Backbone:
């Protein structure tokens, strides 16, 4: 029987959760008010490195509305509690204890030293002003190379070093390729560049917050988190609580971008205080606290060597990375550069590859996952290098990519980094992008502007990328010494009236899970989209899961939903056969009905649901339930890809950059909801472009964050961004039944190098081959002036640059 119902998968539906999210008529953590609830405010160190000589809280304890004041020694007198790090990347990795509140030494500006508990938030914050802390300042170490220099001040004196860990991958040792050193010795072209990935702030819309209620049989924590299940397990392990007595709820969460993947000192602090006082407590940070105390992202120095023959064939890639961990280790922070290690080779057929990363401590806020987590950094490095190689060889930058990328007929393809890309078609995505962009026409215009000496020069930037997402096969994570697995869990409950509840371990924070999961289940079970409710974010109703990050929700969590739906149908089939008095082999299922082949006899899933509920007429030995669950562990990552093209106009007299057009064609496999895909791409592009042009977390020489508000830390508005032209090609993934690939990080990963390549391309004839991000007008202008002066006042040919320009003039 042929279905006449329009499929839900592939339909551009508006998100069902948007009405409550956009209007704000929902429950955020800071909306919660519990009977007798008290409020917390944290006093934070103004110094990046100092001994705590004394803390006088006498006046604060008697301030209006204050119930209690705690220092680190009050909450953890034995100094036994340390925040967890789930990714020890090497056996000898240095892992200093990060306390809930600093007791003896503060190691970054913004570290908490005391907490006030009061009846109102205002009273708690007022009382902070009366706490007197006597600090003895210590030498501060900032900057990756400074931290590794001989005689540098130590962030943690007891470690004896600022080096956290060194992690190495070599294709010759791994058996995935040949020796890079041989490639360097024998290749016709050896090109070296240094790139800087500046420090960024995730800048999510909703600041972090948590409420802890210790009353009753369970300790209940509400948190603005991406990882309620991980938070539950880590809270129990960190504080020595029985896990079955801990319940974590992530209500609607206003964005995360990796910035809410952590297990927070403030969450542990709130739990300890709630238990101590026997009353519910709430902590909500201010935006200023977010900037200094929530983890930061990126912050790397990349020294990259690429080797090739004169015909443009690449022969080797060597990456030496320095990564700033900040003062402590985040939950997955040490492993973030390691994720990038597998992506520097990108879509290209390198025969030799060497990667070495040194993680470093500095007196700054710790770094951890930020949208893309290691993969944007890697994509930036390789896509900048492909442009540099093209210039060195006198080739068009698109030509050098096409010569070296994996052809569509070569999939599945095992890379020099050891990953097997299951599917892709870089040629198709690039051809469509070039057509939409008018690549050849813009090249002609660029040539005309160069020849006419136009003060506004045109540059064209390319980023042909892939990424590994859908984190992750558990065995792969295990091989990388990650503490947890990468599976995901889902359950489907069929209610008596045929309505459906989907319980997912993938906890959304704005991605549209409720809509996409409803579309998947509507197609699988043939029930109306409107009859499906998706439940997530509560470890009591969704009792197991690995949560949301790494573009894993659909390609791991969504597949668990698919498999759970298959199990529902498997349970329903013998019941349907019994009700229609036929053999199971005579049945087919379509559009929500089991039908007897070749007849008009059928019964709907709703009819079966009621028959199961009543249990009056079931086959012998059949359980009266259709409810089913599945835990899915992927066999491979998913590998979305795309081609992003940017045209940038640079005013050579002022350094101002204007993005004239931006075209991207992404291949994310089968799109469950194209409208959600479009939204994810748009948001990702905004963040990637922001890194290229606007954002930078800057510390002064004393370690104080000078970009600690949105007045100083520049986020783009809609007026600062162009209208994007987006499109898709589709090569389904072969490793999951939906054929889907991740999309959450694609725009961020691809856009930063596309924009920087465009700006550098616009001014390269002035002798510029790099400008440090963000590409502010001052930095661009300085680079032009420096390059022109070095070239004797004459425009130099491509490839005559000066290396990375670290121009002065401030971040904004």
Residues:
């Amino acid at each position: 029987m042929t279905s006449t119902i329009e499929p839900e998968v592939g339909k551009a539906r508006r998100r069902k959760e948007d009405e409550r999210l956009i209007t704000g008529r929902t429950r955020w953590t800071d909306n919660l008010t519990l009977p007798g609830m008290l409020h917390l405010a944290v006093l934070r160190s103004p110094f990046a490195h100092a001994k705590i000589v004394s803390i006088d809280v006498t006046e604060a304890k008697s301030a209006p509305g204050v119930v209690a004041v705690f220092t680190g020694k009050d909450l953890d007198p034995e100094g036994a509690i340390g925040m967890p790090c789930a990714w020890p990347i090497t056996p000898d990795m240095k892992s200093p204890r990060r306390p809930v509140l600093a007791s003896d030494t503060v190691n970054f500006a913004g570290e908490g030293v005391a907490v006030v508990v009061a009846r109102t938030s205002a009273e708690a914050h007022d009382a902070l002003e009366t706490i007197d802390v006597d600090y003895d300042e210590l030498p501060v170490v900032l900057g990756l190379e400074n931290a590794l220099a001989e005689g540098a001040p130590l962030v943690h004196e007891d470690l004896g070093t600022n080096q956290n860990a060194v992690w190495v991958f070599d294709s010759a040792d791994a058996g995935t390729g040949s020796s890079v050193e041989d490639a360097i010795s024998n290749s016709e072209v050896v090109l070296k560049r240094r790139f800087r990935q500046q420090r960024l702030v995730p800048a999510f819309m909703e600041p972090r917050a948590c409420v802890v209620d210790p009353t009753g049989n369970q300790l209940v924590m509400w948190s603005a988190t991406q990882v309620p299940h991980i938070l539950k397990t880590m809270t129990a392990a960190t504080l020595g609580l029985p896990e079955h007595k801990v319940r974590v709820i992530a209500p609607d969460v206003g964005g995360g971008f990796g910035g809410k993947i952590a297990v927070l000192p403030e969450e542990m602090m709130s739990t300890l205080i709630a238990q101590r006082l026997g009353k519910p407590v709430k902590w909500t940070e201010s935006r200023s606290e977010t900037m200094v105390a929530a983890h930061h992202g990126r912050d790397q120095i990349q020294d990259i060597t690429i080797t090739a023959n004169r015909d443009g064939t690449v022969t080797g890639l060597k990456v030496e990375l320095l990564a700033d961990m900040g003062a402590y280790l985040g939950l997955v922070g040490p492993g973030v550069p390691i994720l990038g290690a597998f992506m520097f080779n990108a879509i290209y057929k390198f025969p030799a590859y060497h990667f070495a990363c040194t993680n470093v401590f500095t007196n700054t806020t710790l770094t951890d996952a930020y949208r893309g987590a290691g993969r944007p950094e890697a994509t930036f490095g390789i896509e900048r290098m492909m442009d540099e190689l093209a210039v060195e060889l006198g080739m068009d930058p698109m030509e050098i990519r096409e010569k070296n990328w994996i052809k569509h007929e070569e999939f599945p393809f095992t890379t020099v980094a050891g990953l097997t890309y299951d599917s892709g078609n870089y040629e198709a995505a690039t051809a469509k992008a070039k057509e939409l962009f008018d690549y050849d026409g813009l090249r002609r215009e660029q040539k005309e502007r160069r020849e006419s000496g136009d003060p506004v020069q045109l540059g064209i930037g390319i980023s042909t990328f892939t990424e590994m997402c859908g984190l992750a096969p558990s065995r792969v994570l295990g091989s990388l010494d990650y503490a947890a697995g990468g599976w995901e869990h889902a359950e489907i409950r069929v209610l008596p009236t045929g309505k459906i509840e989907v319980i997912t371990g993938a906890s959304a924070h704005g991605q549209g899970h409720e809509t996409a999961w409803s579309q998947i289940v509507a197609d699988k079970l043939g029930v109306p989209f409107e009859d499906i409710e998706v439940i997530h974010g509560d470890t009591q109703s969704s009792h197991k899961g690995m949560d949301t990050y790494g573009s894993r929700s659909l390609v791991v969590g969504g597949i668990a939903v698919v498999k759970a739906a298959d199990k529902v149908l498997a349970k329903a089939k013998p019941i349907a056969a019994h009700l229609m008095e036929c053999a199971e082999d005579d049945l087919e299922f379509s559009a929500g009905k089991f039908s007897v082949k070749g007849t008009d006899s059928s019964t709907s899933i709703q009819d079966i649901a009621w028959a199961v509920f009543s249990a009056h007429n079931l086959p012998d030995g059949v359980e009266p339930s259709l409810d089913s669950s599945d835990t899915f562990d992927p066999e491979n990552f998913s590998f979305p890809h795309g081609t992003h093209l940017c045209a940038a106009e640079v005013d050579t007299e002022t350094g101002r950059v204007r993005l004239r057009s931006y075209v991207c064609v992404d291949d994310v496999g089968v799109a469950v909801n194209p409208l959600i895909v479009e939204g994810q791409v748009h948001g990702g592009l905004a963040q990637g472009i922001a890194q290229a042009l606007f954002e930078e977390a800057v510390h002064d020489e004393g370690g104080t964050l000078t970009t600690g508000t949105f007045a100083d830390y520049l986020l783009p508005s809609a007026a600062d961004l162009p209208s994007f032209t987006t499109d898709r090609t589709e090569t389904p993934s072969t490793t999951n039944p939906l054929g889907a690939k991740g999309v959450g990080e694609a725009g961020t990963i691809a856009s930063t190098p596309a924009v920087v390549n465009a700006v550098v391309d616009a001014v390269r004839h002035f002798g510029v081959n790099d400008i440090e991000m963000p590409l502010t007008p001052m930095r661009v202008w300085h680079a032009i002036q420096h390059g022109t002066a070095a070239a004797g006042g004459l425009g130099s040919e491509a490839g005559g640059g000066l290396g990375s320009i670290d121009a002065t003039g401030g971040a904004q």
Summary: The two ends are 64 Å apart (CA to CA). Residues 553-580 form the longest helix (28 residues). Confidence is low (pLDDT under 50) at residues 791-812. The chain is about 30% helix and 20% strand.
